[in-house]
Design brief:
Length: about 210
């Protein structure tokens, strides 16, 4: 698959050396690189400076949560976010990535866009379920719904270094989210009835590249 865009979400851990390698590699390949903080604009701008991400991503390719985005949400979603922001100004809006790919940047070819995140639920599931982009997870700090997750999984592609990343870009990768979506359905049912299916096999969720 030939990718035209690579989009990084708000990672749990920023390895500037790794990101610089990726930036240089993608520049040579003429592939666009984006960063989505998921933070409110004023908070996100400060974070980009504090983490020195401004040295990796072009200013025009860095996106934060804006009032325009928030006002586009239905009333109940606006209220939920208002409560979240009251609790913490560092609240990360996990839906913003879907909005970016489907509405904010509709000119991007989603089918030729690769999203990189850390979270099995809010990155891998959200992207595979609500957009036509593909997704890989960046270890070592994997999470499930923002909780630390260190089990060895099987069916979501995970990258650890530049070599893994180049393999995804340069070779045909089988992006199959069937088991992830099956797991998600079971997870949602378990949450809705207040019970956890103890037979769920978490080891079947992702695979190493």
């Amino acid at each position: 698959m030939i990718f035209e865009n690579v989009v990084f979400g708000n990672l749990n851990h920023y390895d500037l050396g790794f990101l610089k390698e990726i930036s240089s590699y993608l520049s040579d390949k003429k592939i666009n690189l984006y960063f989505l903080s998921g933070l409110k604009e004023e908070v996100g701008l400060k974070m980009v400076i504090d983490t020195k991400l401004y040295s990796i991503f072009k200013k025009e390719n860095i996106f934060h949560v804006t009032e325009s985005y928030l006002s586009s949400l239905v009333e109940i979603d606006q209220e939920i976010r208002q409560e979240k922001y009251k609790i913490s100004k560092d609240y990360v809006d996990q839906y913003f990535k879907v909005y970016f790919l489907t509405k904010l940047k509709p000119e991007l070819n989603c089918e030729k866009t690769l999203f990189i995140g850390n979270d099995i639920w809010t990155d891998a599931y959200y992207i595979s379920e609500y957009t036509s982009s593909n997704v890989v997870l960046f270890s070592p700090k994997l999470t499930f719904n923002q909780e630390a997750y260190d089990k060895d999984l099987k069916t979501i592609t995970v990258i650890k270094n530049l070599k893994d990343f180049k393999t995804i870009i340069e070779k045909e990768t089988d992006f199959n989210y069937t088991k992830l979506k099956s797991f998600a359905k079971n997870y949602l049912v378990s949450k809705s009835i207040g019970k956890l299916d103890l037979n769920l096999d978490f080891k079947k969720i992702y695979k190493k590249s």
